Amino acid sequence: MKSEEITALLGEKFGEKVLETRLDGASTWSVIEPTAIREVCGFFRSDERLSMDHLELLGGVDYKDRIEVVYVLYSMKHRHRHILKCRLSREDPRLQSVESVWKVADWHERETYDMFGVAFEGHPNLRRILCPDDWEGYPLRRDYKAPKEYLGMPV
Amino acid sequence: MQSIADFLSIIPYYDQFSGLFQNLVVMLASSVIVLGFIALLAMFLVYLERKVSAHMQDRLGPMYVGGWHGWAQSIADSLKLLLKEDIIPAEADKLLFKMAPVIVFVAAFASFVVLPFGASSIVSDLNIGILYIVAVTGLAVVGIIMAGWASNNKYALYGGMRGAAQIVSYEIPAAISIMTVIIPVGSLSMVDIVTAQEGGIHNWFLFRNPFTFLAFFVYFICSLAEVNRTPFDMPEAESELVAGYHIEYSGMRFAFFFLAEYANMFVVAAIASTLFLGGWTSPLPGAWLGGPMVPGPVVFALKALLLIFVQMWLRWSLPRLRVDQLMHVCWKVMLPASLCLVLGVGYLAVFWN
Amino acid sequence: MEVDYSGEMMTLQMGPQHPSTHGVLRLELKTDGEVVHEAIPHIGYLHRCFEKHAENVDYPGVVPFADRMDYVAAMNNELGYVLAVEKLMGIEVNERVRRLRVIMAELNRIASHLLAAGTYGLDMGSFTPFLHCFRDRERILDLFEETCGARLLYNYNWIGGLMFDVLPGFEKKVIDFVDYFEPLVADLNRLLSYNYIFVKRTANVGILSPEAAISYGVTGPNLRGSGVAFDVRKDEPYLGYEEYDFDVPVGRGEFGPVGSCFDRYIVRIREVLESCKIIRQAVAKLPPGDVQEAVPKRVKPAAGEVYMRTECPRGEMGYYIVSDGGTKPYRVKVKSPCFTAMSAFREISRGAMIADIVAIVGSLDIVLGEIDR
Fold it and tell me: What is the pLDDT of residue B153?
């Protein structure tokens, strides 16, 4: 299915919950209302025409004024791809977990939580994954200052 | 032992001492000889193993120490082990931790007492020789469990438990397959077993009848498991349990385990060649070769070395079994097989004679 | 097999330092005797902030960092990054660069699979195949050393080209290697793959069903081992892979259920032969040309973002790059194949034995440098 058709299908189904769509450039993406992300992902996963069974990537980007969470979806059956984005506030980034849709989201969401502090609601085990459990701050935020020492050891 | 006593009697005034003292000297002398033999043997076998594995793996192995093909590598290694720091974990059970390698080594050492290197080259020809060996090698289990428990390490504990389960289980089919030889010989003495096979290769129990032929393989496989060689090296499985029961040992204490392993390899190979390959007797019938020309101990050592080479060959080419598969092989394959073989041999002994 | 787990359990920490966790991985095993009730992987011991570093160096400067993620398949890692930046900037490289990149990537794939197969043999207690594999891998590393001076971390792929052209006679050496190597795969199969004990140890262990594999985002040989014929080189070709004639081997479940450790292992062995086929074709049609023809004077892509994935030896490696129009990438996010494969580990290791845990970790063929980045 072409990108145009996917975005058309998405607009038809979710309407005002799709905040922005971009079709030119190296990749095509849609921005989704954060409260609807699980619903949209569930639709992408289960709908026969889309059947996006492969969550290729889930990660955050810090744009200084907002945090974006990016979902790269791919369908092994139809061989098409679409990118979803959610824009969150930097102060209190919250988002629904899609762990129930794709199991792979489990670790990806933990990593995004670890690096950006995005709290995924409904995640069964939201702990830090790469950094130690008692690490302070979210390393991949643009304003992150690396600590001078950790538990008394120089870093 | 008799030959040692004869040798000692050339010392002036030796026969003036009391009989008890003479016996003590003989015992001391024979234990020093056995100890020296084990140390040299282990060094040689380590060198052999390194060379065999290297050539199987397309490399050269030790090449530098000592000049010619790294012949002194084992000596250097044993010196290194002697000089290494002896580390005892703070939380270990100190007494058991120190005793364990000694017990394992003693078990290996004690088996050498009844190994018949030649008609007169035997420390003591016990009338229950083979039974004694079965009993003494079983002692090693105690040491392995002690090492596993005393180290206060979970991997060591796993190794110890695996070792106990494995060695105790495999002793049963091994002992039963030994029965297949004892029945036709009618004696437990090692010398009697060998003399029953004199007269050439066709008299060896390996080729005597189909039951003893199969019993040899049953015994050989079980003996591999008893000395923890691949594919049965569960207790020390390096990719699972890191080093198993001797994970916390270092320096000389580790060397004792190491020494015991190689000594045990030789013991089981020697038993197999005594029971099935005619011990010190020449493979050729009559007195063509062997007999006076090649001394018995050399023939015996060559046979044992051949079997050790097979052990090494298997070790470097086979993967390791899993614990449940190991037990499956023991209880569902080896044990019934060895029982059937004993029945077969018994049938022949009664009705064929 | 139904096992009652109601008894008291012992926690066994496998790792971070352990011979068969393939790096610094910690597995928290809840064991009941030899049976593992649950195996919880803990990662992060090798976290080196690749993504943070990438934000602070310019575009070409990221390439050496990309090398150091999956350090046994560095050529493939940097290739993915370079292709992503080229896609972002719209750079077209010439045919010679494309073919050389394919040759290098496939040679590196063979080297990486050899390491995987060898260490898997080691995990199973078989030492000799390991050294045989390393002997052959060494010849590939010699080829790389001759070309770019490095044996492990190459920095060979540049944005828009290659660091050096190959030396004269390289083609012949590559073909000589392939001729030498192809018959040896049968040797390895005799020695390890179809060994009775090896098959018994692996064929019924660590079953990953195709549905679970897709849901867990498992890719590459691990996914194909579950019987899903999906290969980025075939299904979303890059570098002109559509011109090459090769098959995608999948797990067939010869000795047990599809998706077992054996299937994942044997897929790698078969892939090595397919790589040999690709190398032969690539060398046969290697045109002359300047390998640095399209290298830009200054790498400064316009603002935008790109997602590019390639088929690495361990699965598909995805790079999501955001550019703000500067000389440094604004954000580089890596989709690492081992990371997703490892997330499925807890599921497939349930109820296994301690020895099976080793078999499963080895069959997933993880490289911790790439999981932790």
Answer: 86
Helical packing angle, B296-317 and B210-226, nearest 10° = 70
Contact C216/A at CB under 8 A: yes
Report the pLDDT value the prediction gives residue B38, as an integer from 0 to 100. 83
Kindly state whether C356 is in contact with chain B, defined as any CB-CB distance less than 8 angstroms. yes
pLDDT in tens, A13-40: 777 777 777 777 667 788 888 888 888 8
Query: In angstroms, how far is CA B180 from the centroid of its own chain?
Result: 20
Assess A56–C contact: CB distance below 8 Å, yes or no. yes
pLDDT of residue B352 exceeding 80, the answer is: no
HSE at residue B66, side-chain half, CA atoms within 13 A, is 13
Mean pLDDT of C66-93: 88
Residue whose C-alpha is closest to residue B227's, from B99, B108, B322: B108
* Subunit contact C201:B321, Cβ cutoff 8 A: yes
* Beta-bridge mates of residue A82: A73
Element at C247 (helix H, strand E): none
For residue C288, whether the previous peptide bond is cis, meaning omega lies within 30 degrees of 0, is no
User: Nearest residue of A to residue C340 by CA position?
Assistant: A104
Cα separation, B112 vs B31, in Å, equals 10
Residue whose tokens read 């649950």 = C38
DSSP string for C131-161: HHHHHHHHHHHHHHHHHHS-SS----EETTE
Question: For residue C86, what are its two tokens?
Answer: 């080229």
Buried b (16+ CB within 10 A) or exposed e, B68-96: eebebbbeebbeebeeeeeebbeebbeeb
Nearest CA in chain A to C87: A26
CB A137 within 8 A of CB A144: yes
User: Beta A94-96 vs C35-42: how paired, if at all?
Assistant: unpaired
- Say if CB B308 and CB B269 are below 8 A apart: yes
From the number of C-beta atoms within 10 Å of its C-beta (0-12, 13-18, 19+), residue A114 rates as buried
Contact A84, A70 (CB under 8 A): yes
Q: Are B344 and B212 in contact (CB under 8 A)?
A: no
Q: Is B53 on the interface with C (CB under 8 A)?
A: yes
- Contact of chains C and B by CB distance (3 or more pairs under 8 angstroms): yes
A25, A103, A131 ranked by CB distance to C216: nearest = A103
User: pTM above the 0.80 mark?
Assistant: yes
Of A27, A54, A106, the CB nearest to C305: A27
DSSP label at residue A53: -
Q: Which amino acid is at C201?
A: R
| Nearest chain C alpha carbon to B315 | C126
- Is the CB of residue C202 less than 8 Å away from at least one CB of chain B? no
For residue B346, count CB atoms less than 10 angstroms from its CB and return exposed for 0-12, middle for 13-18, buried for 19 or more: middle
Contact at CB, C124 and B239, closer than 8 angstroms: yes
In this complex, the chains that touch B, judged by 3 or more CB pairs closer than 8 A, are: C
Q: Which region, left, alpha or beta, applies to residue C318 given φ > 0 means left and ψ of -120 to 50 means alpha?
A: beta
With contacts defined as CB-CB under 8 Å, which chain A residues touch C340? Answer: 104, 107-108
Are B57 and C127 within 8 A, CB to CB? Answer: yes
Which is it for strands C331-335 and C35-42: parallel, antiparallel or unpaired? Answer: unpaired
Tokens in use for B178? 């030994």
CA-to-CA dists, residue C233 to A72, C227, C264, C280, angstroms: 19, 17, 18, 17
